[in-house]
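does this look right to u?? zinc ion version
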Amino acid sequence: MGLYKWQRTLAKPVSFKGQGVHSGKTVHLTVNPAPTNFGIKFRRTDLPAKPMVTGHFNRVIDTSLATVIGENGCIVSTIEHLMAALSGLSIDNAVVELDEYELPIMDGSALVFTRAIREKGIAEQNARRLYFIIQEPVHLENGGKSVSIYPDNRQIISCTIDFSHAAIGRQTLEIELNEDSFESEIAGARTFGFLHEMELLQFYGLARGGSLDNAVAIDEKGVVNQEGLRWPDEFVRHKILDCIGDFSLLGIPVLGRIDLCKSGHNFNHEFLKSFFKNKRSWKTTTLCQIANAVC
Ligand SMILES: [Zn+2]
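got this back:
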C-alpha cells in the first residue's frame, strides 16, 4: 500500500508453484504485467477457453473457508493472500494465470508472493491512480463483530481479536501501511487454526493440502508448530493481512482508516457490499485532486 500518483503493474512476470490448501493439488501460478485500468484478473489456463474472472467483490461466490470468485464458468479459489500481496505493493493491474482452480497456499502467508514480486520490480504506468476517499464514517456491527471506516489522509488499519484460547487471547494492532511496513510487519503472518477443526476439515475432504508448513496450528496446550510463532501477535497480523486482501476487492485503494473488531472474510465482505451501496459515504478521486495541486 502507499500513496502513489500513478497506476502500477509488475515489471516482469513472476511464477510460483505450490499446493492448494483445500484441493491438495499442485498448481502453477504466474502473475503477469497488465495495461492501465485493467485491474486484477485471474485466467484459468487449464480450461479450453482460458476464461478470466475479475478480482472484485461483486464476483465473490463464497467466503466460508476461503475467498472464491466466479464469472462465466471460471471459478478461482483462495485468492485472499495473493490479493493482499498485490494490494500491499500497490499493484493496480495484473493478469494472474493458473492451471488449477485453487491458488497455491505457499507458507500460509503472503511473504513468498510479496518478496518475489518486489525482487522482479514494479513499474509505474501512464494513468492516474484512483482512490476511495471517505466522506463520512461507515460502521457495520453484528454479534460482537464490527468493521468501521473513517476519513483519513493515510492508509491505516487497526484490528482487535479476542479468542478464549490462552495461546491467542486478546490482541490489538494498529498499522500505517506502505510497501515497507506491509512486507516487514504483515506479509509474513500465517493463517492459523485449531487442530481439531483442521482434522475435521480433512475428514470432510477439505484442507487436503493443509499442514504445519502452511498454517499455525493450535491444540489445547498451545501452538503445535515446533518453530513457534513469527511474532507473539502473529494472529492479529494475519487478520490485517486478510483484511487487506478483502478490501482490495473494491477494485481501487481506500484512503482512510479501517477499524476491525473480531471480523473475518465473511463479515468483511458484508461490510464491502454495504460500503459500496452507501454512495454518500465516499467518492473516487486522484491524489492530485485531493491535494488540489496542479500535477
Ligand atoms: Zn488468511
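The chain has a mean pLDDT of 93. idk if thats expected tbh
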